Amino acid sequence: MKIAVVAGNGRAARKIISEAVSRGLEVTAFGRRDNNTDAQHYVKKDIFDLTKEDLAGFDAVVDAFGAWTEETLPMHSTSLAHLSDILSGSDTRLLVVGGAGSLYTDASHKLMISEAPDFPDDYKPVANAMAKSLKELRQRSDVKWTYVSPAAEFEADGKRTGEYILAGEEFTVNSKGVSVISYADYAMAMVDEIVKGNHIRQRISVLGK
After folding, report:
1. How many C-alpha atoms does 102 have within 13 Å on its Cβ side?
2. Which residues, 6 or more positions from 184, have their beta carbon under 8 angstroms from its beta carbon?
3. Burial, 10: exposed, middle or buried (Cβ in 10 Å; 0-12, 13-18, 19+)?
4. Which of 173, 156, 190, 67 is nearest to 113 (CA)?
5. 3-class secondary structure for the chain?
6. 180 with 208: CB under 8 angstroms?
7. Under 8 Å CB-to-CB from 64, ≥6 apart: which residues?
């Protein structure tokens, strides 16, 4: 399989790339800075400068874009819309490294955890921006997208246990009553999703056992 990882120098992206390469996938990473990944191929190019030609011929594209400052938060929507437009009507799947804040508190799907009273104020702007981009992505019937939300605690330096729980749209905890996953185990789940090709036009979530 041939996959592309956009915003490839980010921490989650690098874990996904390493996992994919270790399984024999051919990976091309795209990023604004010099290559800091294990990808076999690298293209130094900003996400907003990517074209249909750049992403042609891939089985899947992983969107690992992230923005954290007030002025850049709208780029969650604009960057995802740009990638969706590029891939519109193609067989190339788009897999998005999502956020946990947009997971629902229960099966009624009326309240996201970011809207709950105890959700940390510091994380609300990012959660709201990512929730908005997911809402917009749900309208795209012309793209084979899958949105993968991590657990509430997303640990950059956590170990690769080799196990994870695949869940759906609702906030889920493991047998210990916690919602946590390492970047390494998230990467494993993402690559499993790339290889299997399940959950087209669905949002799923993953957490550690």
Report:
1. 24
2. 15, 19, 158, 159, 160
3. buried
4. 173
5. CEEEEECCCCHHHHHHHHHHHHCCCEEEEEECCCCCCCCCEEEECCHHHCCCCCCCCCCEEEECCCCCCCCCCCHHHHHHHHHHHHHCCCCCEEEEECCCCCCECCCCCCCEHHHCCCCCHHHHHHHHHHHHHHHHHCCCCCCEEEEEECCCEEECCCCCCCCCEEECCECCCCCCCCCEEEHHHHHHHHHHHHHHCCCCCEEEEEECC
6. yes
7. 5, 6, 7, 8, 10, 12, 13, 16, 97
Dihedral of CA atoms 47, 9, 14, 121 in degrees, nearest 10, equals -80
> How many residues can be counted in the chain?
209
Q: State the amino acid at position 50 in one-letter form.
A: L
The string of pLDDT tens digits covering residues 172-196 is 999 999 999 999 999 999 999 999 9
pLDDT tens-digit readout, 2-60: 999 999 999 999 999 999 999 999 999 999 999 999 999 999 999 999 999 999 999 99
**Token reading at 53:** 């030609």
